[in-house]
């Protein structure tokens, strides 16, 4: 088969479409012939040498895939520890999902990683609450907006102004241009956030606490704004707030399987009803993954950038 390899850490130009050995599925695994994968920020970090795959995972980038189970012919999509940028990928059967009714196999590649990340971090108990989503134009952001709105939440999101119209069309009630506006002041005008989904990390830590409602919770899933920050615990104690910080890729087999089951139960019905749709900015041939990484690094896209195989 062919796969995108990373001969050395560096810029997008290091990504190389090369012939490599076929993966050999182990006990409890299925072999998927890839139709599409999607680009995630973790892939960029792996390319740069900052985020190695967990032990036992494929060395190739790619945290989600859609395609065909080579044994049964069934169309599936899957959450991966790595290996999505390849013509074939072996994955535990418990980490696969059926293609939601109404979607093509290719479109489904935009869902596994974002659905599992969002569901496992903010849960499904959002009715009547206010959710603040940082990076609303990302794959995570566009999914979280739709998911929360479908569950009856009020959604505030931060993004560049050029993306606001698209995010309002997805259901966001309030959009904040983080390049021109103080998101804390804007959130205070609206109320306060019961839940915050944050991809920025250190740079936003204190300000997120300021924007948090009493008994609110902050879920940190990224460190685009740094990894180290000082926190005044008095501010958190005063709000009886909680902070969680999680990464999906390194979780164990059983934990991922439980998350996938939760997504199948809580999220897939919303997708099949049309309340949530995959937001795909563009499709790029997988052999041209370097171009896709450049698009995501610039961050002018809205939603997911797919890598497709004819």
UniProtKB/TrEMBL annotation:
CDD domains: p53_inducible_oxidoreductase (cd05276). InterPro entries: ADH-like_C, ADH-like_N, ER, GroES-like_sf, NAD(P)-bd_dom_sf, Quinone_OxRdtase_PIG3. Residues 10-307 form the Enoyl reductase (ER) domain. Keywords: NADP, Oxidoreductase. It comes from the Bacteria. NCBIfam families: quinone_pig3. This is NAD(P)H-quinone oxidoreductase.
